[in-house]
Amino acid sequence: MNQDMRVAIVAESFLPQVNGVTNSVCHILDHLAAGGHEAIVLAPAGAPPAYAGFPVHPIPGLALPFYRSVSVGLLGGRIRGVLAAFKPDIVHLASPAVLGAAGATAAHRLGVPVVAVFQTDLAGFARRYGMGVAGRIIWSWLRRLHRRAARTLAPSRATLRELSARGIPRLALWGRGVDLERFHPSRRCERLRHRLAPGGEVVVGYAGRLAAEKQVHRLAAVAGLPGVRLAVVGAGPSEKGLRRLLPEAEFLGLRTGVDLARAVASFDVFVHTGSDETFCQAVQEALASGVPVVAPAAGGPLDLVRPEVNGLLYAPDDTSSLRAAVARLAGDAALRARMSRHARASVEGRAWPVLCEELLAHYRDILAIPAPPPAPPAPERRPDLAGGV
């Protein structure tokens, strides 16, 4: 099946919020536009009216209490009407939760197949914010949601195993692409490096959201290593506490686009601290920049970091293991140089157009399966939360 497709993307998070979900959706839309496909986006209110030439339909939303950079859609009352008017071939749920549940219900009633992309470990984030009891509720909700999908795409093998163990069916692996032009070793900036390490120290850097779920406080284990300067890129609710915890670190603030790529490429070692990553795009961007990575042996980084080749893995929640790994790389320039060469090579085949074509192949596989008849019309009632479509 090679004809153009009509794709409705229900995005739990979208512009102006900048995060992994938004980034993926934007790349998918760019690829659909380049391929001559038709698309619409349903996203939380506040989104721009259009992206890549495709209309964006706003849905009222709210911020999650434990992840306030993500505003999820609240009322799903108009979703069915938007989908019915567009007549999509397939509905794509991007990191579905509340708005995604409404999208799944609407698609089911219209007889349109659904592909769900699992991306955010909401249960893990809730646990990090001291809301562990909510994890069981979240998983129960996600099971009901994903059972309506013709296919759920997991970003890493670790996440695939977790979803399978949680009873989510019809799983397949689909990773994330990386912008190999933006994130490139040539972005390394000597002026920035001189600012960060005027004495020629080894620059050890982190880039990402500064929040509890990212466990950035683990960088304290690296602070004070001889010949090392610590740099932190990002912003978030934990920033004030981290500045107190890491007084010698250089905080570079939130950076995006080329500014982010320049900062990452200027590191000598990239450290990731969180153990709840379903994929970890920051690790992939560091590798594309030719920077060896130190990351926990958990979740998405297991698919990206090849120990002794492009980086090192440390035991999750073991800060002494983290410190030892960073100390080893910081003290061995030849090892860093060898890993740097392999870092870039390890992601050369993961450009976004390649990954987007893999996604379209999943769409076509699903569309080749005979569709069930539309669900009978539901009784008329007032719009409700999430499933009220």
From TrEMBL:
Tell me the keywords, alphabetical order: Glycosyltransferase, Transferase
Q: Which residues are in the Glycosyltransferase subfamily 4-like N-terminal domain?
A: 18-182
Q: Which residues form the Glycosyl transferase family domain?
A: 197-344
**Annotated PANTHER family:** SULFOQUINOVOSYL TRANSFERASE SQD2
Question: Which InterPro entries does the record associate with it?
Answer: Glyco_trans_1, Glyco_trans_4-like_N, Glycosyltransferase_grp1
Protein name according to UniProt: Glycosyltransferase family 1 protein
Query: Pfam families, from UniProt?
Result: Glyco_transf_4 (PF13439), Glycos_transf_1 (PF00534)
